[in-house]
Specification:
The complex is a heterodimer of chains A (324) and B (324). Chain A is of the alpha/beta class. Chain A is built from 11 helices and 14 strands. Chain A folds into 2 domains: 3-182, Thiamin diphosphate (ThDP)-binding fold, Pyr/PP domains (Rossmann fold), CATH 3.40.50; 196-321, Rossmann fold. Chain B has one domain (6-305): Thiamin diphosphate (ThDP)-binding fold, Pyr/PP domains (Rossmann fold, 3-Layer(aba) Sandwich). In chain B, strand 6 (207-211), helix 7 (215-230) and strand 7 form a beta-alpha-beta unit. Chain B starts with 5 loop residues before the first helix and ends in a 16-residue tail after the last helix. The chains are: A alpha/beta (324), B alpha/beta (324).
Chain lengths: 324, 324
């Protein structure tokens, strides 16, 4: 199988979907002529024309609004927001409009649209270019939330998101933009709402998202002689495949959730709620969340690292949980 | 002499009668319900502004798109929304145009291009970009009309939208209804210049101040703007100067100068137009009475229909929430 970088895999997904469906279009800042600041739309304007792939002014509300209106009237837009942090500047069309239009119109509308963006720290870009805001969007009824962790999933989930008839926010981890992985030559999609067990283990279930999947796997490998860690990557937060998580917890009796976003009021808390409500009696120790420190992301590397869960933190948490 | 066909003139009057009658009935019914403790949401009366919707609406085709506001009953009626469905929606009934999920501020009928009101002031502006882009994309000559108030012109979405629409020559007619107040705030505290239409120059698009209580003036200005948009010449900003007769919302008390109110009431759009029709012998008093009676009957029937309709079944709360 060919090896691709994550950004290439996503670019291929966009290219293939533009080719497959005449209703798909792609736009955002620097997306057209330049091909996206991360290269995720490289040469797509040349291939598909400026009618379908184009640059917008520096106006996040206008970008998202264009996507909503286009989806309302028969297209399947993909709107790029360069950094998820910038979505806050123009959030109304997504949260107050897209998420609600289908329901509020009594089901008259479908809104097949994707907000294509990236998140996360680790690049010393400081507090306004490093956030993980997925929990905000997962909290809004009417939005699907997708977070790929591997190159294979980055492509397959993006294709599934574009084919979905609901508003989807697709958030890729910027620290992995260079990550290489195998991608089959033949066409495939990764359906939304299916978690994947990345590693089997009998002692502890670690649910990790996005970048943290890789750190959890590294920790599990480091502890392989000591603790059997099962690593689950939910891949999509809405819809959430809680059954796969429950099946694992019923086996291991222990649950650790690891995500880069702040711990407080986060995805980890929600996953634990769902598990506790349905499998409380199978837990042998209190579930734990390892998340971001909950301060604005600092610029300097030592502080930035201290903000984000590291492999060593996961190892320490796992050892502690195995003692109880 | 009026250079507009007689049927069109009668259509103007019919629309204005319908809007006025609708608002009066709703206000009465809502007050009665409020007294009985059965209060249903908010009600923003369009009384006084009828000439704007009637004049603009008459320039539109059924397949043109329209984005409305919180004060949108008049826009919906002028676009041809079925009265039964409209009143039923006001009452929260399953037979309402948004199946009781939207209410007064969210009147949808996609089949006639009524893309909804909006509870967010300025919320429709970015969405209009999308339907306009989509019309160009699909190579149709559909026009998008976007209504908003003098208050909404202070939103960031106003700038982002007009800028992007001008850049891309989107087929949009921006109709700013300057009724001189945003809730209790006079327009002079929202806008530092005399005419909001003058802002069009900042985007290099035509802008015009229109006597918003003169349905013929609105019709002429809107016809020109719609024709420009249809011919691919891009957006226009129309500012219709008008006045709402009622309080901002329901009967909430507010303080507007009495002389100002009286001056505008003396320029009631319906009275002005009826006087003109009589003067030019377009309609006799009998004709007028017949039209008024016909409109009243339609409204009485619609209220009957809505009263007799069922509320949605709570079991259906989450059914069809996601598309497919
Ligand atoms: C974003 C937002 N801010 C504030 C409000 C509360 N609000 C509802 S209507 C309104 C005044 C709007 O004024 P204008 O745009 O002139 O429209 P009008 O009511 O005069 O038709 C306000 C402040 C809101 N609904 N949305
Ligand atoms: Mg106003």
């Amino acid at each position: 199988m060919p090896q691709l970088k994550m950004i290439r895999a996503m670019c291929e997904a966009l290219d293939e979907e533009l080719r497959r469906d005449e209703r798909v279009c792609l736009f955002g800042q620097d997306v057209g002529e330049f091909g996206g600041v991360f290269g995720t739309s490289a040469r797509l304007q040349a291939k598909h024309g400026p009618r379908r792939v184009f640059d917008t002014p520096l106006s996040e509300a206008a970008i998202l609004g264009t996507a909503v209106g286009a989806a309302m009237s028969g297209l399947r837009p993909v709107a790029e927001i360069m950094y998820i942090d910038f979505i806050t500047v123009g959030i109304d069309p997504l949260v107050n409009q897209a998420a609600k239009l289908r329901y509020m119109s009594g089901g008259q509308m479908t809104l097949p649209m994707v907000v294509f963006t990236q998140c996360g720290a680790g690049t010393s870009e400081a507090a306004q270019h490093s956030q993980c805001l997925e929990a905000w969007f997962a909290h809004v009824p009417g939005l699907k939330v997708v977070m790929p962790a591997t190159v294979y999933d980055a492509k397959g989930l993006l294709k599934a998101a574009i084919r979905d008839d609901n508003p989807v926010i697709y958030i890729w981890p910027k620290l992995l933009y260079d990550l290489k992985g195998e991608v089959p030559e033949e066409e495939y999609v990764v359906p939304l709402g299916e978690a994947v067990v990345r590693r089997d283990g009998a002692d502890l279930t670690v649910v990790a998202t996005s970048l943290m999947v890789h750190r959890a796997l590294a920790a599990a490998e480091a502890l392989s002689d000591e603790i059997g860690i099962e690593v689950i990557d939910p891949r999509t937060l809405v819809p959430l495949d809680i059954e796969t998580i429950l099946a694992s917890v019923r086996k291991t009796g222990r649950l650790l959730v690891v995500h880069e976003a702040n711990t407080r009021f986060g995805i980890g808390a929600e996953i634990i709620r769902q598990v506790v409500e349905r499998a409380f009696d199978q837990l042998t120790c209190a579930p734990v969340v390892l998340g971001g420190a909950g301060v604005p992301m600092p610029f300097t590397r030592v502080l930035e690292n201290a903000c984000m869960p590291q492999e060593q933190d996961i190892i320490a948490a796992a050892r502690k949980m195995l003692k109880c | 002499m009026i250079d507009v066909p007689r049927e069109t003139l009668i259509q103007f009057l019919r629309t204005m009668y319908l809007i006025r009658g609708f608002e009066l009935k709703m206000l009465m019914l809502f007050q009665r319900r409020a007294l009985a403790g059965d209060f249903l949401g908010a009600l923003h009366s369009y009384e006084g502004q009828e000439a704007v919707a009637a004049g603009v609406g008459a320039c539109l085709r059924k397949d043109d798109y329209q984005f409305s506001t919180h004060r949108g009953h008049g826009h919906a009626i002028a676009k041809g929304l079925d009265l039964n469905k409209m009143v039923a929606e006001m009452f929260g009934k399953e037979t309402g145009c948004s199946r009781g999920r939207g209410g007064s501020m969210h009147l949808f009928d996609v089949s006639i291009g009524q893309m909804g009101g909006n509870g967010i002031v300025g919320g429709g502006l970015p969405l209009a970009l999308g339907t306009a882009y989509s019309a160009l994309y699909r190579n149709t000559d559909q026009v998008t009309v976007c209504y908003f108030g003098d208050g909404a012109a202070s939103q960031g979405s106003f700038h982002e939208s007009l800028n992007m629409a001008a850049l891309n020559k989107y087929p949009i007619v921006y109709v700013c209804e300057n009724n001189h107040y945003a809730a209790t705030t006079h327009v002079s505290k929202n806008c530092p210049i005399e005419n909001i239409a003058d802002r069009a120059a900042g985007y290099g698009i035509p802008g015009a101040v229109v006597q918003g209580n003169d349905v013929l003036a609105v019709y002429r200005a809107a016809s020109e703007a719609v024709a420009r948009a249809r011919a691919g010449q891009g957006p226009t900003l129309l500012e219709c100067k008008t006045y709402r007769h009622r309080a901002h919302c329901m009967v909430i008390p507010e303080h507007r100068p009495e002389e100002e109110r009286e001056a505008w009431l003396a320029r009631d759009p319906i009275n002005l137009f009826v006087a003109k029709l009589r003067e030019e012998n377009v309609m006799t008093q009998d004709d007028l009475n017949r039209l008024a009676a016909e409109v009243e009957q339609a409204l009485v029937d619609a209220v009957k229909f809505a009263d007799a309709s069922p509320f949605p079944d709570p079991q259906m709360l989450s059914v069809d929430f996601w598309a497919n």
